[in-house]
Amino acid sequence: MNSFLHDVATSLLENYGDNLSNVEVVFVSNRAAIYFKSICCDLGVKPPRTTTIDSLILKECEMLKVEHNFLLISKLYSIYSKYHNEESFEDFYAFGKLLLSDFDAIDKYLVDAKALFTIVSDTKELDFSIGIEDSAKDAALSFWKSFDFKSATMHSQREFARVWSSLYDIYSEFNEILDNEKIAYKGKIYRWVASKFEGFNPLIINENSSIPNNKKYIFVGLNALSRSEEIVLLALQKENKADFIWDYDPKWRDYKAIEADFFIEKNIEKFPQAQYFKTNIFDHKKVKIEVLTSPSDATQAKIASMLLSEHYKSVENGERTAVILPDEALLVPILNSIPTEFQSVNISMGYPIAITLAATLLNSLLVLQKRIKISGYGSKYLIYRADVEAVVSHPFFSDVVDRTQFDNLTQLYFSVEELCELFEPLETLWQCTENSYRVLHKYLVDVFEFVAQLIENKETAELSQQLFYIDKIKESLVRVKT
After folding, report:
1. How many domains is the chain partitioned into structurally?
2. How distant, in Å, are the alpha carbons of 5, 25, 32, 243 from that of 17?
3. Where do runs of H (alpha helix) occur along 155-217?
4. Pairwise CA distance, residues 161 & 320, whole Å
5. Nearest CA to 79 among 166, 161, 179, 165?
6. Residue pair 387/368 in contact by the 8 Å Cβ criterion
């Protein structure tokens, strides 16, 4: 039986034929686009252009550039600390990441931020919000009426309300800074593009949009659309520049009680399925499901290896075999357990940088700097033995240092001067940043540049693959201007 993407390719070829060059297929992710192009090549057809809905919307706003999250959170902290100066950046970071995600959702769904961040006790307080639904007003009133701001026992509620009441000002000032610096988070660009397409006027769009007049967009396999995405799609649909192909199984439309049906019905009503799309993948088939118990994560990898070996014998190849992991930490054990019969593997998940060798070195360096002691009148910086051990034992330095003399010493602390003598090749590492963020930033950049050069000189396959992660950490550090 053919796959969904195979049926998409054959349907487009049958419907557009020689005009396929004027078609651009829009997917949720690049992974689907890669498979689609491969299928087109197998059919002997030059693949049409492909993109993701993210890329399609972001390229419509040339005046703003999506910035790295770490830099955005640092700028957000500079605003937040004006209203709540009791938190350090380290303590704020996790909340800042959540707050940035909330701002992103607010803009993608075109939510009135002022209405959202207002503490209300009366419906009239929400009247300034044009177009806010009655259900939203009722929900806001119900939520805030449960708060008891006068009770001394409700400290956590009062603290929440104190932070909440400042969020609109923080949101506004944060966006003002981003506008001045011509940078943005994705949701901000989504809101800007939606405002450009709302109240669609073909003449305006044709003059100011990057969308050619003769282009047709085929949106494939989308799901829960944000309000800003809906506006863009409706504008393209109105100008007859868009077709929609959904991968919804018709049987799910019969289950009116499930949450997914809300999106299914809404999407199909606004953006009907392209009539030329033909598929039989939704024909009901018998499905065999087998559940196996496993005492540990490591055992899961071993069991997966055995199952893959058995499965490979019953199929022509492994292209239509998928291993879905419940935990991203299992990626490396699974990759090491894949049978040799599978000559190539397509990985659709990101490898967590937090578990790379580059990240473990970064953590070790931060711990080392945090626990440095000052001896006497500040004349000597002393580094804890365990922190030295953690650094010199790192795989990056396994064949660079001679530990013989160090291992024979029993002292708990070593001065910077002693370490420079004991481990001369690693002299760059033995510095004290004196609790200065600026000095720490330069220290980390210097260390990772040193490490990158060290690994490049080794030319070993095992460590060379770590250069990618080292470069990612260096890139993040360099982009955070001090």
Report:
1. 4
2. 17, 15, 22, 16
3. 155-181, 186-197, 202-208
4. 51
5. 166
6. yes
Evaluate whether residue 149 is within a structural domain: yes
**Does 474 lie in the same domain as 360?**
yes
The domain that holds 255 is classified in CATH as: 3.40.50
Residue 283: per-residue pLDDT: 75
CA distances for 235 relative to 44, 80, 106, 211, 232, angstroms: 34, 37, 21, 12, 5
Count helices and strands (H / E) in the chain: 21, 9
CA distance 127 to 130: 7
C-beta contacts of 135-143 below 8 A and 24+ residues apart: 140/115
Q: Are residues 367 and 448 in the same domain?
A: yes
pLDDT digits (tens, 9 = 90+) for 42-53: 999 899 999 999
pLDDT, tens only, 1-51? 688 999 999 999 999 988 888 999 999 988 899 889 999 999 998 999 999
C-alpha 173, offset from chain centre? 24
- pTM, rounded to two decimals: 0.73
* 372 and 327 part of one domain: no
Which letter does DSSP use for residue 281 in this model? T
**Domain-located, residue 377:** yes
Distance CA 371, CA 382 (A): 9
What's the domain range around 335?
A: 300-339
- Nearest Cα neighbor of 11 from 35, 40, 32, 34 is 40
User: What tokens appear for 170 in the block?
Assistant: 């923080």
